[in-house]
Amino acid sequence: MRSLNYLGILSLLLGVPTHSLKAHDFKTCSQSGFCRRGRALSARAKEAGEAWSSPYSLDPSSISIASNQAIFIAGVKSALYPEINFGLELRVHDDGVVRVRMDEVRGLRKRYDEAASWALISEPTISSDIKWTAGKKDIRAAYGPKKENEVVVTFAPLTVALLRNGKEQVVLNGQGLLHMEHFRTKTQEVTHTEEAAPQEGAEAVSDDAQAVITPTNPRAWFEGDKEDDYWEETFSSWTDSKPKGPESLSLDINFPNHPVVYGIPQHATRLALPTTTGESPFFSDPYRLYNADVFEYLASSPMSIYGSIPVLHAHSADSTVGIFHAVASETWIDVGHSAEKSTETHWISESGILDLFLMPGPTPEDIFKQYSRLTGTTVLPAHWSLGYHQCRWNYVSSDDVRTVQKRFDEEDMPVDVFWLDIEYSEEHKYFIWDKKNFPDPVDMINDVATLGRKMVVIVDPHLKRTSDYPVYQAASEKGLLVKTKSETEYEGWCWSGSSAWVDFFNPNVWDWWKSLFKTQQISTWSWTESTNAVHIWNDMNEPSVFNGPEITMPKDNIHHGGWEHRDVHNINGMLFSNLTSQAVAERSEELTRPFVLTRAFYAGSQRFGAMWTGDNLGTWEHMAVGVKIVLSVNIGGMSFSGSDVGGFFGNPEPEMLVRWYQVGAMAPFFRAHAHIDTKRREPFLLEQPYKGMVKDILRLRYSMLPIWYTAFRETSVTGLPVLRPHYVMFPKDKAGFDIDDQYYIASSGLLVKPVTEKDATEAKVYLPEDQVYYDYFNHHAYRGAANGKEITVPAALHQIPLFIRGGSIVSTRERPRRSSTSMKADPFTLRVALSRTGTARGELYLDDGETYAHRAGHFVWREFVAETPKKKSRTLRIASRDMGVARPGEAVDGVVLKAFNPANAYAQSIADVRVEKVVVVGLNSKPKTVKVEGGADLNWEFTLGVAAADKKEGTASILTIKDPRVSVVKDWAIIVEW
Ligand code: NOJ
């Protein structure tokens, strides 16, 4: 195969030199008309200081309260345009979330208002416990169990505030930056200065606006003096015709007394978002949300990358609040701090209505629950998809795939999935095998599947425009493709050359798209050369268009319903993975869980599969920032996430590759991937000792699969992320607010500090509490402190700083196997890591890992508890018991279980699976007897070391109980006595 790099391919396709596709291919705020207008508005406000006042006010006589007090509706006007009407609507949901919507009413056109309908799982239930009380200046409603929450709408100027115990938590328009540009008719260019004469001696506010600040000239005072890019905008060689004219939305959202904010992924930056405004902002541009294929993205930047989740957490030691803005158009967000303890944000979106969800918290945990009630939880993935994925652009032939598989097996390295990038397809016509190199695709897939493994094959959203591509032909004939502003089929360039894009907003696409994945011929064209062992990778779905503005589609392209691409850009990619995951799930009679990896994502994408952080570079910097990006997408609900292990671009030296495997093994999604132009770097190609190190890491990941799967189960039920940064675990600990290079794995009790530095031999780890933490590998006991403590731990190349928090019980499967499927009947090892007070607890969740039988109650969910029974101070009882039915209100993938039978068919099928070893860490002294309750003495060993209750550090005492002959699905207890 030709060896071309990414740039080379681009250059070949476009016939243009593609030099460096970096920052300058993408707009800065000052190059984007509406962002510039939004920032200028805020600059004018700042300049005017106290004199600034929002022109928006609510007309109290228009207030109506509907649905039995639950919905509050009122008319809003801007003093600048009295003839224009806006409607404000507030609803309080039964869990305390407040939804604030504002739209232009009876305007010249309709603003896009469907973003929430794609993001939300269902229409939220409205509280029946709300009573609005109107006063002269405001209307308010107190709610919550103790009426601790209150929402207050002030009439003039219009503000909306959420209060807790009388203290403001979130304030909208407190700074007067609300501005919904109304639809208007294009006449000749109007400058606001024409409306009123400038006042003498008035000051100019910014370089570009010669506006004159004078309240006698209110439009210029507020909006600036000219129609800045209202009707057309040019960037580089592209011109965006703006047939609808200006329709941007600006809003300041302030969080009094919340000094830190997290979220609004995806950006390559720290988890605690650095400022973009103020005296010395960290970034000069606002954070941008505009799904983009940024070639060689910067490792520290507020620029957009592939996905956008408009969710923000504002945090302080005693409160967390969140917001979700259901807007799908390009959005810029400024972040600054006014007083030391508050955060001010300014949201500027190009189009759409205001549809904002205020999540009252008051803890991070509450926010995750509130958010997942809106947009759903991460779907419980297929078990195999938590194993190791081997990818590269490209495995070049079916024999190449077979050889790679053989090499893994020869080296006894576990792997679950082999991936095929775009070169499997003939001329990049997805679904169509390139028979020269893949003459026998079904045989190849079966050769992989026979060994219990899967394949993931790429299907991108661009279709090659050629008469010999039935998929394109059908889409074109049926009118299923995105259109240009003149309503003709849109043509752009991507991997397949001249391409067209399927319009997933069109309901007629849905069944047709699903029909393509059927492995039986059911329509004119179905993917019969595929099997149920094939899963799908959706790439380039920002969408990436090589010759489009900012490497994407023109904003004036038209989607189903007549909406412009500008209105839907950020949700476009989510629809693709949504439909693909449905297609894979439904492709055959046998319903199995689909796996779909997506590059672009939006709020709600967690329901459809996994994401990865895109084309990272093989640098230490990218390795480090990848950890932060993954944490921040976890905050945004996308728990199933990871980065390309090894770095997409470049040839990592062995040390870097080993560290990258460590990072990957400790991430929810674990896949190695490499650019077409890189050297082969499958782990079996490494020299010793690196090869051995990577093999150990792969085996570690597999031994921990029960932990990962249990973590995903928890996430799929509660909405809490799989990876939890410090502020989520210890919200009160200020010292942890900025920590984003170590994290916990769900509630397993595991704390990870991935090493992302060259030549490291040790690492610093922050322990936030007065608790013992054991090194996962050698059980060295470290001590934290109530006010936090930093410890230094060994971190030579073969070592991962991984700890078990005292008080946890973790379940692993320690027998090395070639894939996760061969582990299904393997016995378990339980690690009981005693807390300072001598107790521990953990959970284990198991099901068949592939079907939906778990939704009907076919699963095993155990709780392990170690404690000293009352009045038996010389006993430790380690018990296994059933977790029973999901707790009230809990649902698996949105399905609430009504009844649960612990003796379900799945549980019975693994009744013989044993716990083969129990390791108790941190006992005080050697026990006298160790027995299964009501049974004989067991075979055990004890080595004396540091006890959990000690103050000392050093290797902990270890009690190893060998083969207690207890089933993992049954209730039992092991009694340790002195
Ligand atoms: C871009 C993706 O980010 C990368 O992972 C993939 O290898 C190439 N597209 C080719 O499909």
UniProtKB/TrEMBL annotation:
Output one GO MF annotation. Answer: alpha-glucosidase activity
- Stored CDD domains: GH31_GANC_GANAB_alpha, GH31_N
Domain Glycoside hydrolase family 31 N-terminal, chain residue ranges per copy:
88-334
Gene3D superfamilies, from UniProt? Glycosidases, glycosyl hydrolase (family 31), Golgi alpha-mannosidase II
Q: Where in the cell is it found?
A: Endoplasmic reticulum
According to its UniProt entry, the protein's GO biological process terms are: carbohydrate metabolic process; N-glycan processing
Q: Which UniProt keywords apply?
A: Endoplasmic reticulum, Glycoprotein, Glycosidase, Hydrolase, Signal
| Pathway listed | Glycan metabolism; N-glycan metabolism
Q: Where are the transmembrane segments?
A: none
Asked if Endoplasmic reticulum is a keyword of the record, the answer is: yes
Q: Boundaries of each Glycoside hydrolase family 31 TIM barrel domain copy?
A: 379-711
Q: Which domain of life is it from?
A: Eukaryota
InterPro entries in the cross-refs: DUF5110, Gal_mutarotase_sf_dom, GH, Glyco_hydro_31_C, Glyco_hydro_31_N_dom, Glyco_hydro_31_TIM, Glyco_hydro_b
Q: What family does the Swiss-Prot or TrEMBL record give for this protein? A: Belongs to the glycosyl hydrolase 31 family.
Query: What is the name of this protein?
Result: Glucosidase II subunit alpha
